[in-house]
Amino acid sequence: MASSVLKVSNLTKRIKKTQIIHDVSFDIKEGEILGFLGPNGSGKTTTLRMVVGLIRPTSGDIQICGHALKEEYINAMSNVGCIIEGPDLYGYMSGYKNLELLGSMSKDVTKKDIDEAVSLVGMENRIHDKVDVYSMGMKQRIGLAQALIHKPRLLILDEPTNGLDPQGIHEFREIVKKLAEEKGISVLISSHLISEVQLMCDRVSIINKGRIIKNASIEDMLSTGEVIWTLDDPGKGQRILEETFEITSTIDQRGLSANLDISRLPDINKAFFDAGLRISLVDNKKQTLEDLFLSLTHEEKI
Question: Which residue of 6, 68, 132, 165 is surrounded by the most CB atoms within 10 Å?
Fold first, then answer.
């Protein structure tokens, strides 16, 4: 089982007499992408600021690659690359010069590290152009390269696709997924583009009013538990569900449908097959992440 690159345990934050973060806990495994979602004022930004050490928690623990942020700040943060509120770049310099300038602040960053970061974000052909002529998507790629030159094990991306067009969003998403899958980099990503989080992330943590209210894999989070079968004899299927599995079902224009624990589905399908039923389609109905987000946070708009 992959180890936790980031582990947040019982994090709280109190400002004067008001507690704004309540026992927040989540973790990110190696090579995993975790989406961090919350409406405005939910405590999302405050939590991210605590994770990167910009503000101190009132209580709780943050561990990065086994190093406690409170006691081993330098060792912990040496494993982190961040894009918070957009990349900070000098427009009159080339993308490469920007990376060299940042790399010169650390004795550990080599030319090879910079070249590898440029390659990872797909900017080889334009890296020596001035930043002033870059599109927003190209600037975001350079910002990502900045975060990568130290070879971090954890990337923290706060609204990384802000201002990007659909093509830029797609390209950025594919780069992030490639970093996780091929380089084993863990990613914590905060975004208001919920459909993008659904496409990009392995798991999602939803925070509201300073509390984590849902923390699960995308697959588990979106499954409604409703299964719909298209059978040659739905009435016979309904009898099998009720008599063999004690599951109540309905038949309508969609087919035979029932709410059930998805882990029972293989046994049910086998029973249908053994009974001579022909199964044309099995569909596990899912909701969108946006629907779930709205229902959990009771927000009318995102």
Answer: 6
Q: Sign of the C-alpha dihedral, residues 19, 23, 24, 30?
A: positive
- Name the residue range of residue 196's domain: 1-79+152-209
Give a yes or no: residue 243 inside a domain.
Answer: yes
Q: How many CA atoms lie within 13 A of 182 on its CB side?
A: 7
Closest CA to 115 of 131, 95, 134, 90: 95
Separation in Å, CA 136 to CA 114, 131, 140: 21, 10, 6
Element (H, E) at 146: helix 136-148
Beta-sheet strands, E only, within the chain: 4-15, 18-29, 33-37, 59-64, 67-68, 80-84, 154-158, 186-190, 203-208, 211-217, 223-231, 250-252, 255-259, 279-286
229 plus 272 within the same structural domain? yes
pTM of the model: 0.79
Measured between alpha carbons, how far is 197 from 183 in angstroms, rounded to an integer? 20
Q: How far is CA 77 from the centre of its chain?
A: 20
Last residue of a domain, one of 120, 148, 176: 148
Mean pLDDT, the chain, rounded, equals 88
In the β-sheet with 223-231, what is the strand arrangement from edge to edge?
A: 250-252, 255-259, 223-231, 279-286
The model's pLDDT over 35-93, given as tens digits with 9 standing for 90+, comes to 998 888 888 889 999 998 889 999 999 999 999 999 999 999 999 998 876 678 899 99
Amino acid identity of 113? D
